[in-house]
Amino acid sequence: MRITYTDDPRVAQEQRSEDYATHVVPQSARVPRGKLTMAAWSLLSALNWVFYGALAAALVGTTQAIIGILVSVVVYSGINVFMAGYGTRFGLGSFLLSRRMFGTRGAWLTPLLIATGTTYFAVFESSVLAVAFKSYFGVVDIRWWYLIVIAAILPLTLGSVQTWLAKVNAVLLPIYVLGIGAAVVVAAVRNHSGSQWLGFAGLNPGAPHAIPGWLEVFCLYMGVWLLMPVTVDFATLGRAKDLKFHQNVTFGWVFYTWLFLLNGSAGIFLVHTVLPGQAAAETGVVQALLGTLGGFGVILLVATQTRINTTNYYLASSNWRRFFSGALALKLPRVAWVGIVAAGVYLLMLTDVFSYLQRALLFQGVFLVGWVGVVITHFALSGADRKAGPEFRATRVGALTPGFGAWLLSAAVGIVLVAEPEAFPVLSPLAPLVTLATSMVSYALVFTLLPSGRKGAGAPDLRDEVDDVWAARVRCDSCHRSYVAVEMDFIEGGAKACCLSCADHRTKPAKSATP
Asked: What are 150-200's pLDDT values in tens digits?
């Protein structure tokens, strides 16, 4: 083996824009906590969270909506303490982290779900901005505004967390904060609303509900548990010494209080004050902002949508790259995937995006809730993996594991409940919670009763040949690049060293050593 203790210059240069999408993130690539916080906090300015608050209040009233949002803040914050810890401690993104539970092939569903989800959100946020331009300026066809919005954002989406993604979002954050605050103040002054919005009982206050209003809102917010694996992906770039900060601030209670409670409350107030009596709609938030701030509302929308879409494009392009490089061995740079995502976003925007977006995310949400349930259960049951991290190398993990079946089962249960509300009037609104319970129970059973899906027992392990698996870099005999030893393994009975990416596509499984 060729072992060094410094980064391979070629790898460091290549991964500056890739952020180690298909490799373990070494300690040398971790970024300061301020940079990671600013990159991750671009999620704060998505108008989707403002709309979710307005939607929740329209369904069950302000009081029940706020209670449900507070419960969501507590649950999200608690779960992401662990998700941030997994990503930072082990350097594994959500895809690599889940290979132990689902197998090398089954885990490809993870980046596919994140890629489609963040692509959907890019469509949503881009459409909102285009609608704002069309509403304010009133010129040219909406399709041209779609194209203008996408073309304008592209130059800003090519950066990574390691380069300048954080800088873009740090500059635009004050505009977002001041803009939302100004919109709330102007709306209150103009409409003399006082505290009436707090007493809003919903658009249909007498309508019967199968479950309590706050629980309905909590289940609504479970539909975006996409944020859980996204937390893992961002946390891989965090430094170990900053973990407590990230668990509390970057991905913890500070973040979710702002993301859900403050944004949601602003959405409830603005829509109820500016558009009283109207059903919550995706474009309603745009109308409320333009109605209160006018031209400054356009500037605010540009700032907010630029912030969130830099992250949407970053996550979508990174995860499409992860999926296709593994599933189809199609290796394109992330820059190319940014262009592909932009083309796909434009084509989807030409459809009636708002008519199907929420339902598509609802179906996808049950898969992600099941993913979270399996991951939580696995680490609760496996003390060894909590301490040292899960096995993820293709030479050591099978293509599919029994855990993948547990995941599919839970998702199938959730989809049936979502698709058949008439047949399951009580369970249908509880579909995310039922999915979570099913995933945890079914995975606990297969973890306890069935084979783990691991392989290569008795085969020589490259990790045993180095003194520090995080400090040592070992040269791959396939691509001739050096990566941290923690992701490397022997192939061909110990004759060659192989990196994680090459092992996925070009190697034979590890064999037991000859006695």
From this structure: 988 887 776 555 445 556 667 778 888 888 899 888 888 887 655 678 888
Ordered DSSP codes for 412-438: HHHHHHHH-TTT-TTTTTTHHHHHHHH
- 198 burial (CB, 10 Å; 0-12 / 13-18 / 19+) is middle
User: Cα(390)–Cα(379) distance, rounded to whole angstroms?
Assistant: 9
Q: Which amino acid is at 184?
A: V
Q: What is each CA distance from 432 to 462, 484, 503, in whole angstroms?
A: 42, 38, 36
Among left, alpha and beta (phi > 0; psi -120 to 50; other), residue 283 is alpha
CA distance 150 to 122: 10
Torsion of Cα atoms, 308 then 310 then 313 then 314, to 10°: -110
Instruction: Report phi then psi at 61, rounded to 5.
Output: 95, 160
DSSP letter, residue 140? S
Q: Give the side-chain half-sphere CA count within 13 A for 504.
A: 24
pLDDT of 511: 38
Give the pLDDT of residue 510.
37
CA 255 and chain centroid, separation:
14
Helix (H) or strand (E) holding 10: helix 9-18
pLDDT tens per residue, range 355-405? 666 677 778 889 999 999 999 999 999 999 999 999 999 999 998 999 999
- Rounded to whole angstroms, the Cα distance separating 483 from 460 reads 19
The dihedral through the CA atoms of 358, 360, 361, 363 has a sign that is: positive
What pLDDT score does 132 carry? 84
- Whether 453 and 403 have beta carbons less than 8 Å apart is answered as yes
pTM exceeding 0.85: yes
Q: Which residues of the chain have pLDDT under 50?
A: 162-163, 507-515
User: Which helix or strand (DSSP H or E) is residue 475 part of?
Assistant: strand 473-475
Is residue 255 within 8 A of residue 266, CB to CB? The reply is: no
pLDDT of 283 reads: 67
CA distance 154 to 179: 24
Separation between Cα atoms, residue 259 and residue 471, nearest integer Å: 37
